[in-house]
Amino acid sequence: MIQKIGIIGSGSIASHHIRALNKLGADATCIASRPNSVSTINLARAHKIKNTYNSVRELINHAKDFEALILCTPASAVPEILQTINNMNLPILIEKPGINFEDSLSEFKEWNLYFGYNRRFYKTVNVFKDSIGNQKGFFNFKIVEDYDSLFSKDLLFNTIHENSVHFFDLCSFIFGPYSIGKVEKMNGNFGYIINILNNNNESVGQFFMQFGTPANSTISFENSKISLNLKPLEKIQRANKLVVLEPNQTCSVRKYIPSWHPETEQGEFIEDSELKPGFEMQMSAFLNSQDSVLNGNKLALLADAQFAYKVARQICLKIKEIEN
Question: N or C, fewer C-beta in 10 Å, the chain?
């Protein structure tokens, strides 16, 4: 297992990565950011990181300090950072989305690059995925974003590329390859309905993108045999039968109670890590990334990051078409 990690960037997400690797017995041994960065100084002090550097170049001059790197920088900075690293042949975990245009990292395809789509490692997401198996049905990805995105196209497109992209990756992780069909604007400027197509050009679900609604993002799947809900994503509810209780003297309303059979299996699971959900398992997979059995092939690779970005870009282009 990898023991010594170098951190590049000192945004708020870096602290979550550091807590996860510390829990697993590894250490953040050094950190690099822009010169005289207050956030870098504070992060190093909070996590007792001894070595701080004012540039990526300075960090790689101390390569003996680390066995792998975690990049917690804006996507726009990633290609230049990788050029500076100049193929040190180390595992590198890049915080999502990792790229800011579709082919920006193609030249690094032979590197050991992984991308921080931590929701792939939610316990609930994996129970959801396993419960579906090879069944056919309909997916609904309800994506709730900030209300202000309705009033600024720049903010809207940035939000889709940097946050909604989590769901575009989860769709491929759970369901497999897909494409984007028709995009429709909802009545009242409330959001967008984005049709999801399979390889046969059949509708298999939708991204239901909403802005400012007082509700959580959710994922659901249904067919004639099963109903699955991540509502919120850290909690799963499963049902494969519906019990109907007719009205009686004590209750005048008919009740419909979804339940899971067999009763000996738990029908509801809740994400239970004290860390940011998914981060502990993602970090474990990264620290053991050279062992494909241990990481379970859940880590997002370059092709996964490029696919999620491609979907985000297609959706933005279709939104521009219907808004013009």
Answer: C
Q: Considering its fold, how many domains does the chain have in total?
A: 2
pTM greater than 0.85: yes
**Residue count (the chain):** 324
Is the Cβ–Cβ distance between 125 and 280 less than 8 Å?
A: no
pLDDT in tens, 284-293: 999 998 775 5
Name the amino acid, one letter, at 20: A
Identify the pLDDT of residue 293.
Answer: 54
Domain harbouring 10, CATH code: 3.40.50.720
Q: Write down which residue in 55, 82, 116 finishes a domain.
A: 116
The answer to whether residue 130 is domain-embedded is: yes
Three-state DSSP state, 4 = strand
Same domain for 267 and 133? yes
CATH number at residue 229: 3.30.360.10
The residues near 312 (Cβ < 8 Å, ≥ 6 apart) are 97, 160, 161, 164, 165, 168
pLDDT at 129 over 80: yes
Give the chain's mean pLDDT: 91
Task: Determine the Cα–Cα distance for residues 115 and 137; give it in Å rounded to an integer.
Answer: 29
Beta-carbon contacts of 96 under 8 Å, excluding residues fewer than 6 positions away, are 115, 116, 117, 118, 162, 165, 166, 169, 300, 305, 308
Q: Which of 116, 148, 171 is the last residue of a domain?
A: 116
Tokens of 202: 């059949």
Residue 296 is assigned to a structural domain of this protein? no
DSSP string, 241-295: EEEEE---SS--S-EEEEE-SSTTS-SEEE---SSSTTHHHHHHHHHTTT-HHHH
Tokens linked to 58:
């300075």
